[in-house]
Amino acid sequence: MSKKKLNVGIIGYGFMGRTHSNAFRTVNNFFDLEYEPVLKAVCARDGGKAKAFAEQWGYESVETDWKKLIARKDIDLIDIASPNNTHARIAEAAAAAGKMILCEKPLAMNGPQAEAMVKAVEKAKAPNMVWYNYRRVPAVTLAKQLIDEGRLGRIFHYRAKFLQDWTISKDLPQGGAGLWRLDAKVAGSGVTGDLLAHCIDTSLWLNGPIDKVTAMTETFVKERKHNLSGKVEKVSIDDASAFLARFSNGSLATFESTRYARGHKALYTFEINGEHASIFWDLHDLHRLQYFDHRDEGLTRGWRSLHITDSDHPYMKHWWVPGLQIGYEHTFVHQVADFLAGLSTGKPVSPTFREALETQKICDAVLASAKSGQWTNVG
Ligand SMILES: NC(=O)c1ccc[n+]([C@@H]2O[C@H](COP(=O)([O-])OP(=O)(O)OC[C@H]3O[C@@H](n4cnc5c(N)ncnc54)[C@H](O)[C@@H]3O)[C@@H](O)[C@H]2O)c1
Asked: What is the mean pLDDT of the chain?
């Protein structure tokens, strides 16, 4: 059966440019879908590098100005894989031009900006989705299934961490290619928007809305040389961020993120404790879900390490034979597969811009609470 072509124009050829391109290229090999992405154009400011990327990944053409990309009649979908301060302008222009939009996380620099983006895509009725890809790790999707089936019972605790260690050196500059995450004018915030946003998105999906938070943040290295100005400038991102939260379902939560946890590169973990059962997941062991069920027979009761590779586990029937693992890049393939399936059914695919707005509001509340030292209501 011939597929319906969906012409993709991607903005950004960095880390996420690669994960998304890989997903667009691979998805139809593994998932039976009505739609097929076509790698039509890549856009980035450096035309030479964009051309090299286009040749490597199979894009048909190159643009150096995202406005020109959006103006093209032969582009159906704009995929935003550029730094955070570009998301709003691109998404609003793309919506006005009638394009579908996929946008990297965090959706925006702050809640009000995200709110305007939601209005723009909803007014245009543009299919939209945000790349909170960890929802599509099969073990995490299974956690959602187990919670929705009521296996954990009433939830008491949610505990999430995202730890890294790559900015400890005071000699590391801020700003410019590769280091824009250290520049608040481009990133919006530090680990709150970059790392905790992932933890928050997963938690909202698994455990429902958060009502209020109390937070602390710290910037351990106060000044760094800025790569663009060449001058030593104040660092205004949060290097570390930790907060307590109360969920609407009555459960209590702790969230912690830092880029100063020596020895940790991308340690995203969460644990959920319910009345009957608990689950624990660790990105470094992403194909496993740890599960403890108090209702098990006493003599053999204990934590089970579920190997999420069987064909009845989420997404796994599309891959290899039971027992063989998949990894990080597959989460992006799953997200594209779900988005394309949503185009066929006409149903929005999570997380939409509107759902990602909730995460943005919580990030704002975390930063506001860290400043005021007070418990802060979300929204
Ligand atoms: N889902 C995830 O797990 C995840 C992981 C990493 C990054 N991200 C998000 O993805 C986005 C990109 O991050 P990255 O790590 O790929 O960054 P990167 O620095 O590796 O790549 C950014 C790209 O954007 C391009 N760019 C910058 N400004 C541009 C402009 N005005 N017009 C066109 N292109 C422009 C750069 O040339 C580069 O190709 C960010 O929003 C980030 O938060 C998400």
From this structure: 98
Q: Given 82, 108, 133, which residue is the final one in a domain? A: 133
**Ligand 1: which of 64, 82, 140, 237 to mutate, most ligand atoms within 8 Å of CB?**
82
Q: E strands, 138-275, where?
A: 155-163, 210-218, 223-225, 232-234, 240-247, 252-258, 267-274
Q: What residues make up the domain containing 253?
A: 134-377
pLDDT in tens, 181-216: 999 999 999 999 999 999 999 999 999 999 999 999
* Ligand 1 center to 122 CA (angstroms): 24
88/207 same-domain check: no
Return the CATH number at 43: 3.40.50.720
- The structural domain count of the chain equals 2
User: Do 124 and 142 share a domain, yes or no?
Assistant: no
Neighbours of 304 (CB within 10 A): 14
Q: 82 C-alpha vs ligand 1 centroid, how far in Å?
A: 3
Are 133 and 22 in contact, with CB atoms under 8 Å apart? no
Does residue 302 sit in the same domain as residue 315? yes
How many angstroms does the Cα of residue 180 sit away from the middle of ligand 1? 9
In one-letter notation, the amino acid at residue 292 is F
Residue whose structure tokens are 């929204």: 379
Tell the residue number behind the tokens 């410019």, with chain if given: 176
Q: Whose CA is nearest to atom 21 of ligand 1?
A: 14
Ligand 1 midpoint to CA 49 (Å): 14
Residues 256-305 pLDDT 10s:
999 999 999 999 999 999 999 999 999 999 999 999 999 999 999 999 99
Give the CA dihedral 86, 266, 324, 20, nearest 10 degrees.
Answer: 10
